[in-house]
Amino acid sequence: MSTPAGKVAEATLHAVGGLVRRLQQAVAGNGAASGDDEARSRWRSVTINRSQDEVLPDGRVPGPLAALGDLVEVQVRPAPGGKGTELAARLRGAEPTGLRSAAARIGGDDPRQQVRSALREAKQLIEVGEVLRVDPTPHGHRPPTPTGELVEGATRRAAGEGVL
Amino acid sequence: MKALCWTGVNETAVETVDEPTILNDRDIILKVRLTTTCGSDLHLLGGYIPSMRAGDVLGHEFMGEVAEVGKGVRNHKVGDRVTVCSFIACGQCWYCSQQLLSLCDNGNPNPALTEGLWGSSIGGCFAYSHALGGFAGSHAEYVRVPYADQGAFAVPDGVSDMAALFASDAAPTGWTGADGAGITPGDTVAVWGAGGVGQMAARGAMLMGAEQVIVIDRLPERLAQVRQYIGAETLDYTQDSVVAELKERTGGRGPDVVIEAVGMEAHGTGPQYLYDQVKQQLRLQSDRPTALREAIYACRKGGSMFVLGVFGGVVDKFPMGAVMNKALTVRGAQQHGQRYIPRILQHIADGELNTQHLATHVMSLDQGPQGYRMFKEKQDGCVRAVFQPDGPTGSTS
C-alpha cells in the first residue's frame, strides 16, 4: 500500500502520462480531435482572371505544375460570376502528417509547399507574364537576432505555405 | 547609396546600402526626390507590426524621377517625374480588374504570412514589413518600383513635387475611405484623426458632396490646418464630449458616415484608453481600438463606417451590439490608390485640393532619425517630416 505522498506522485505521473499521450497523438495526427485537416490530400486552387483556354492552351498544363510531373493531378473549371478559371492541383500520394509533416515544412521539402508555389507561379505567369521577385533587395546591417532569423525563415517558406 | 533603415524598436539609422536593380521586366528604378514619414510607419517603428527585419529600408510615400525602366514598361521613360502608389498591384488579377487594387493577388511575394494572419493575403506595400512583401522603401536615394505601369503616375506640369508627394499615399488613402464609405450629397461626415490621411479623407468627402465634415483630434496645430487648408469643421476631443457634440451638430442624429483614420495606436481620454493601453502592453490585444469604438457609437442609425487607420491583429471590446442593432455598414481597406491618383493630381492642378501644407518639416535624408523622433513625439507641430535624398529640388514649394 502506498503512502499518501506516493499516491500523489502516482496520480501526478498518471496525469502527466495522459497529457503526453494526448500530445503525442495530436502531433502524430492520430487524435480524433486534433483538427489536423491537412492529414488528407486535398485540392488546392487558385482563381485566374483568364479563360480556360488561356489557362490550358491546347490542353497544356501550366509550366510550374507540369514541372511537378506525376507528383500531382490537375483540374480546371470556370469560376462562378465571371471570376475567371479555377486551377486546382493535389498530390497523388498521401500528404505528410504529424512530426514528419512538421519536419518537412520547416526543412522546406514538404510536397504541399511545391504545390502551393507552383499554383501561385502559374497564376502569375498567366495573368502577368512573370513572377514577382523581391530579392536581392537593398538593406542595411542585419545583426543575427532570434527574431530576425524567425522572419527570414518564415519569408523563405512564404511562397509555399499559407492557407491555400 | 544612403538609406534610412529600421534598426530595432524605436530605432532608425542612415546606412549605406546596395542600390536597387531591375528584377522584373515591369520595374522602374526611381531616383527619389521627396519621401515622407506616415503615421502608419509608427506602428512599424514601435514594433507593433511583426515581421520587420533589422536593416529594412523605411518609407512608402514618395515621388521622384524615373532613372531606369524595365523592358516591359510602356508608360514611363527615363526622366519622367512621377508619384508612386504605396501599394503594389499587378493590374491583371480579378481584384485589380474590380479596382480593389490593395487586394491584388500578385503584389506580395510572401503571401503565407498574411494568409495565416487574415485568411487571405493582400497586395504588397513598400517598406511595410516582410508580411507585405519585404520591398525596400523610399527613404533612400533610389527605389525599385514593381508593376510601374500600374503604380507610377506622371505628375502634371504645374503640380509641385511637394504637392504631388502626398498623392502617393495620404490623399488616395483618404479618397479610398471617402469613396468606399458611400458618401452621398448632403451627408454629414465625421473623421477621427487630423493627420495627413484624416485631412485628405475630409477633403475627399467634401469633393464627393458631403455637406458637413467634422474632423476630430487633440492636436491644435492639426485642427488649425483642417480649418485653414481643408475647410472642414473641427472638434477637440480633450475639450468636449465627442458623441454629445456630434449629436448637437447633427440634430440629434449623429453623422451619416464616420471615417476612422487613426488605427492601432489610438489615443483617447478616460478609463477606456487606460484599459486599452494596459491590454496592448500586456499583449492581450494587438491593437487599441479607442477611436473605432467611439466612431461606431457616434454613427447614426443605418449609417456607414470606413476604417482607414491601420489595424494589424485583434481588438478587444468591439461594440458588435451597436453595429448590429443600429444596422451599420462597416468597411475598411488599405488604399486602392491606383484608382484615385489621376483624379487627385487633377484636383491639385485645379486648385481644389491642398496637400503641401502637410510638409511641416523638410530635411535631408541624413536627418531622418531626427525627423522620425519629431514626427513620433509630435514635436514642434510636426505633421509630416519630408526627406530630400537628393538635396533640395527646384519644385518643392
TrEMBL record, chain A:
Residue ranges, annotated region (Disordered): 132-164
Segments of skewed composition (Basic and acidic residues): 154-164
Source organism superkingdom: Bacteria
Entry-linked InterPro entries: START-like_dom_sf
Gene3D superfamilies: 3.30.530.20
Protein name, as recorded: Uncharacterized protein
Organism: Nakamurella endophytica
From TrEMBL, chain B:
Signal peptide feature range: none
Coiled-coil intervals: none
Residue ranges occupied by any Alcohol dehydrogenase-like C-terminal domain in the UniProt entry: 196-265
Protein's UniProt name: Glutathione-dependent formaldehyde dehydrogenase
Named cofactor requirement(s): Zn(2+)
Gene: fdh
Molecular function in Gene Ontology: oxidoreductase activity; zinc ion binding
Family recorded in the similarity comment: Belongs to the zinc-containing alcohol dehydrogenase family.
Lineage: Bacteria, Bacillati, Actinomycetota, Actinomycetes, Nakamurellales
Domain Alcohol dehydrogenase-like N-terminal: 25-149
